[in-house]
Design goal:
six-stranded antiparallel beta sheet, mainly beta, Immunoglobulin-like, about 200 residues
């Protein structure tokens, strides 16, 4: 099956920045689809990531859905996921981090499963205006007895999945937020009363 390119046009303003949305490619059976979003966080603050795998109508069931996420150097997993990942440091190459979310769900046609989590960036590695990219992969198998497998570096074993999809996002470090405050100036007013005396002659 030829790779099918899907582009999801979505741009939402979130509290910590603008979200970037990936272009996904899928291959195999079932024809798995993958979309991903990543915020552009403020300098020194936590960013948010979300990825969703889905199956269109007419596709066979996909079992044992697993995700693989590769974070670049200076970007770290910061929790927040409902499914705790396996964290592999310095993989697939030095400085990078691979996250494996293994066997979290099964998918049927017209269904989807997502994972959200947080990331942090090392201020020493990233200045305001710099960007970082995250790559994502999703895997399923038409055989319920086979779970997508990964080697010690977090690289997928091709024979362990029959359907897969990939995506990527790019985030930009936003300027630091500065909050200023000043003492409240209280206006004071005085009331002057005047008494007029009348004299009686």
């Amino acid at each position: 099956m030829k790779p099918v390119t899907r582009f999801v046009a979505l741009c939402a303003v979130f509290g910590i920045g603008l979200f970037t949305v990936s272009t996904a490619q899928a291959a195999g059976t079932p024809d798995l689809a993958l979309s991903a979003n990543a915020s552009s966080p403020l300098y020194g603050e936590t960013g948010t990531v979300s990825m969703t795998a889905s199956l269109p109508a007419g596709e066979p069931k996909g079992y044992n859905l697993s995700f693989r996420v590769v974070l670049p150097a200076g970007i770290s997993y910061a929790g927040g996921a409902a499914f705790a990942p396996q964290v592999i440091n310095n993989a697939p190459t030095s400085g990078k981090t691979t996250l494996i979310f293994s066997n979290i769900s099964d998918l049927v046609a017209n269904s989807k499963q997502g994972v959200d989590f947080n990331v942090t960036h090392a201020p020493a590695n990233y200045e305001v205006g710099q960007t970082y990219g995250i790559s994502y992969e999703a895997f399923v198998n038409t055989d319920p007895r086979i779970v997508p497998a990964f080697d010690g570096s977090g690289v997928a074993t091709p024979a362990s999945s029959t359907g897969n999809a990939s995506a990527s996002t790019t985030s930009t470090i936003k300027a630091i937020k500065i909050t200023k405050s000043s003492p409240a100036v209280k206006a004071r007013s005085s009331v002057v009363s005047t008494t007029t005396r009348r004299s009686t002659r």
